[in-house]
Amino acid sequence: MDSSTVNYNEIELSSKKDTVSILMTIFLGIVTSCYFFPFSFTFLPESINTKILLAVLGIFILIHKLMTTRSFEFDKDLLAVAGIAAVYSVIGYISADLNNSIDFAYANYWVSFSTWILGAYGCIALLKTAHEYVDFKLLFNYLIAVCVMQCVIAIAMDNIPALKSFIDSYISQATVANTEFLNEVDRLYGIGAAIDVAGTRFSIVILGLTVLLRNEINNDNKIFLVYFYWISLIIILVIGNMISRTTIVGVVLGAAYLLLTTDLFRHGIKRDSIASWGNIVLLSVGLVLVTTYLYNTNDIFKDQFRFGFEGFFNWIEQGEWTTGSTDRLNSEMWIWPDLNDYKTWIIGKATFSNWHAVGTDIGYCRFIFYSGLLGLFTFSVFFVANALIFSRRFNNLNLFFILLLALGFIIWLKVSTDIFLIYALFYFLDDNKIRE
To answer: Which among 369, 317, 294 is positioned nearest to 96, based on CA atoms?
Structure first.
C-alpha cells in the first residue's frame, strides 16, 4: 500500500476523532449548563426541569453501578451533611405545623438536597464518559465555558429578536423568573441564567476561575489557558454584571483571592510570570477598547452596560455610589419580626414562597420568617460543614473554600439563595488537587 494512502487514511481517521471529540465536548458543556443553570421546556410541565432530569439519570447510573459492581461505598461526609439537611427540613415542618401553613418551601429542603446530589452525580458521571478523571480544574473549565456561553447567548438574544422569540417559545425560565417579567423590566437573560440566580452562579465560577488563573500564571505552563481564563473573566465580569449585578460579589472575592495568594508583596513578581502578566495587560487594553467602542456605537449595549455598572456611573457622575436596588434594599427591605413575637424569632411562621406577605426579599429576613433563628442557624451550619469538609479534602484550596462560604453569607444580605449545587459536584470529583 502506498505510504501517501496510509497517511491520508490516518489523517482522515484523526480528523473524525477530533470531530467526535469536539461534539462530545459541546454536548457535555450543554449537560453541565443544564445542571448549573436548570430550565424547563414550554411543552412539558414546569415542575420537570433539567436538574430533575439529570437527577433521574443519576438514579439510573447509580442502579447500574450497583448491579455491575455489587458494592456500594457511603461517603461519611455526605451522610453527615445529609443529616444536617434533614434536621433543617424537620425544623421547617415543625414551623409549618405550628403555624398551620402549607408553605413547604424549605420544609422540603431534603428533596432539593437529594435532587442536587443526584443531579451532580449524573452530570459528573457523563463527564467521566469522555475523560479519564474529573477534577477541580476540569470541572471549572466546563463551568467557565458554560458561563461565557450564557453571556454570549444573553447578548445575542437581546440584539436578535428572532432568536429570543425562538428560545422563549421552547425554553421556560420559570426556574429563575417569569419570562414575561424579564422582558417587561428589560433584563438580559440566558437559558436558565437570569437575575440573582445567574449572578450568584457567575460569582461562584469567577472565584474558581481566579484559582485556576493564579495557578497558571505562577507555573507559567500554558499561555493559552492564561488567555482563556482572563478573557473569560472579563466577559463574565462585564456581561454577567449586565445580567445580574450580584456578579460583582464574585469579582470582589476573586480579586481578594488573587491579592491574598500573590507573591508580589513577599518576593516580587517572578521572572517567569512577567510575560504572562504582560499579555494580560495587553488583553485587558484590547477588551477595554472593544467595550468602549460598543458603548459608544450600540445604544442597546450602552443601556445594559449602564445598568450593570450603575454604581460606578453614579459615583463618577454624581459623586455617590448608589444603585436603585441597593437603595431599595437599605430603605425598605430590612424587615424583622416584632421584638415581642418570640415564636417567630425562634421557629418562624413558615412564610417563604410568597415573600410579599412579609415584605422583604433579603435572605436573612426571609429565613427568619420561615423557620426562625433555629432554622437560620441550622442552615448556616449546613454550609459551614460543607466548607470544612472540602477545606480538608482540598487542603491546598483552604482560602477558596473560605471565600466560597463567605460568598453565600454575603449574598444572603441581598437575596435568599442556595449554593449547595457547587458543593454537590465536589463530592464526586476524582482528585483532591489541581492537576497541572
So the answer is: 369
Residue 225: HSE in the Cβ half-sphere, 13 Å Cα cutoff? 20
Dihedral (C-alpha) 344, 349, 351, 355: value to the nearest 10 degrees?
A: -30
Distances (CA, A) of 314 to 322, 324, 325, 330: 6, 10, 13, 17
Instruction: Identify the residue whose cell numbers are 492564561.
Output: 226
**Do residues 262 and 254 lie in contact, with contact meaning Cβ atoms separated by under 8 Å?**
no
Instruction: Kindly list the averaged pLDDT for each block of 10 residues, start to end, along the chain of length 436.
Output: 54 65 91 94 86 94 85 83 96 93 89 95 93 91 96 91 90 73 78 90 96 78 78 92 91 92 61 62 77 80 79 77 68 81 91 73 89 95 96 91 96 90 94 60
Query: Angle CA(203)–CA(209)–CA(212) in degrees, nearest 5?
Result: 155
Q: Where are the alpha helices (DSSP H) in 268-362?
A: 271-297, 299-308, 310-318, 324-328, 342-347
Within a 13 Å sphere around the CA of 318, how many CA atoms are in the beta-carbon half?
A: 9
Candidates 375, 366, 374; CA nearest to 416 is 366
Place of cell 488537587: 433
71 burial (CB, 10 Å; 0-12 / 13-18 / 19+) is: exposed
Q: How many C-beta neighbours within 10 Å does residue 5 have?
A: 9
pLDDT at 341: 87
Please tell me the distance from the alpha carbon of residue 19 to that of residue 156, in angstroms, as a whole number: 26
C-alpha cell at 343: 415564636
Q: Say how far apart CA 149 and CA 72 lie, in whole Å.
A: 37
Q: Give the C-alpha separation, 236 to 153, whole Å.
A: 12
Using alpha carbons only, give the angle 22, 24, 27 rounded to the nearest 5 degrees.
Answer: 110
